[in-house]
Design goal:
single chain; mainly alpha; Four Helix Bundle (Hemerythrin (Met), subunit A); two-stranded antiparallel sheet; about 0% strand; globular
Length: about 170
């Protein structure tokens, strides 16, 4: 299911910067104390630790849902630690990571893929459709596979680990 979607997040520096500025203009970033990064990192790690039980129970929808939240909290931990703001908007949060070079290109590319794979098939940009399918769609959630769950889970483990190392280096 998730391998058939093409990423819509920008690739080049100019487009990333333009998108970031647009997010700022739309007030998608919320200033907070940089010490609050720990709260988001702790939440990301908690969400990640709860995924394993759902994975073992083959609850692929909940693996995806919890991975989604773990990734988002980890992104915000980085943004808070290094920029003093967070974003509830997933698209804007990912753009800010790359705009400030808080993640290497390979991680940004993976976030682009994950973000797109979660985007709404009906056109609402970056609404994380797999999570929505898992939570709300009473027919499509059954289409989530072990392969979908494994890809998201493995990336989430790697990303949360990267964020934790980066925040404490």
């Amino acid at each position: 299911m998730i391998d058939n979607i093409i990423s819509t997040l920008p690739k080049n520096k100019e487009s990333i910067s333009k998108g970031f500025c647009n997010c700022r203009k739309l007030k998608k970033y919320i200033l907070v104390s940089k010490e609050e990064f720990n709260l988001h990192l702790e939440k990301a790690k908690s969400d990640l630790s709860q995924i394993l039980v759902d994975y073992e129970n083959e609850a692929w929808d909940w693996v995806v849902i919890k991975a989604y939240y773990a990734i988002h909290h980890a992104i915000n931990a980085l943004l808070i630690k290094f920029q003093g703001f967070y974003s509830k908007d997933h698209f804007c949060a990912i753009l800010a990571l790359k705009n400030f070079d808080l993640v290497p290109q390979n991680i940004y590319e993976n976030l682009r893929k994950i973000s797109t794979k979660f985007s709404d098939f009906t056109g609402f940009e970056i609404s994380y459709s797999l999570r929505k399918i898992g939570q709300y769609d009473v027919t499509k959630w059954k289409q989530l596979s072990k392969e979908d769950a494994s890809k998201i889970y493995n990336f989430t483990k790697e990303f949360v680990s990267f964020v934790e190392k980066r925040c404490f280096e």
